[in-house]
Amino acid sequence: MNRFPPRKTNRCQPGFTLIELLVVLAILAMLAALVGPRVMTALGGSKVRTARIQIEDLSAALDLYRLDTGRYPANLGALVKEDTPGWNGPYLKKTRVPKDPWGRDYHYRHPGEHGDYDLFSLGADGKSGGHGEDADIRGWE
After folding, report:
1. CA dist 118 to 32, 58, 72, Å?
2. What is the CATH number of the domain that holds 60?
3. What is the pLDDT of residues 16-33, one digit of tens each?
4. Average pLDDT over residues 120-137
5. Domain contains 92
6. What is the pTM of this model?
7. Which of 17, 38, 96, 135 has its CA 20 to 30 A from that of 65?
8. Distances (CA, A) of 32 to 42, 47, 127
9. For the chain, what is the domain count?
10. In a domain, 39, yes or no
């Protein structure tokens, strides 16, 4: 004797129709079109804020390097690798100098045109100047 009763086959099974699925997809597409640009703008703004914070951290590390050695380094790599007498580093928590939020190296000049050193990122486009996310992020402003 079979413990399970035979299943009844019913051609009319509950589910969604194609029209209902298309309506839901259209609503989701409209929401994505409205929300998407705002999310991308917020993401771009957060990268600019991240670059400013990293420049402040690198500036603090450069100042500590100067206090220990009496001069600013020739390059940012000196913050993580001993290169001069009096070096008391590493001056960064990581073992390497961070890249800007767009994956490029920060620009460092010593002596600088705007102070003892210039530290900056060229923004999203990687070119000097620009507006919004493409604008340069400079440590002397």
Report:
1. 41, 11, 11
2. 3.30.700.10
3. 888 989 999 999 998 888
4. 87
5. yes
6. 0.67
7. 135
8. 15, 22, 31
9. 1
10. no
Give the Cα separation of 128 and 71 in Å (integer).
28
SS3 6: coil
Convert the pLDDT of each residue in 41-100 to its tens digit: 666 678 889 999 999 999 999 999 999 999 999 999 999 998 788 898 899 988 899 999
In one-letter notation, the amino acid at residue 44 is: G
Please give the average per-residue pLDDT across 32-40, as a whole number: 79
Q: What is the model's pLDDT at position 71?
A: 93
**Parallel, antiparallel, or unpaired for β 107-109 and 137-138?**
unpaired
- Phi first, then psi, for residue 131 (nearest 5°) are -130, 155
d(Cα 108, Cα 106) in Å, to the nearest integer?
6
Burial 78-111 (b: 16+ CB within 10 A, else e): bbbeeeeeebebbbbeeeebbebbeeeebbbebe
Within a domain: residue 89? yes
The torsion angles phi and psi of 19, rounded to 5 degrees, stand at: -65, -45
Write out the residue range of the structural domain in which residue 105 sits.
Answer: 56-141
Q: Is residue 82 in a domain?
A: yes
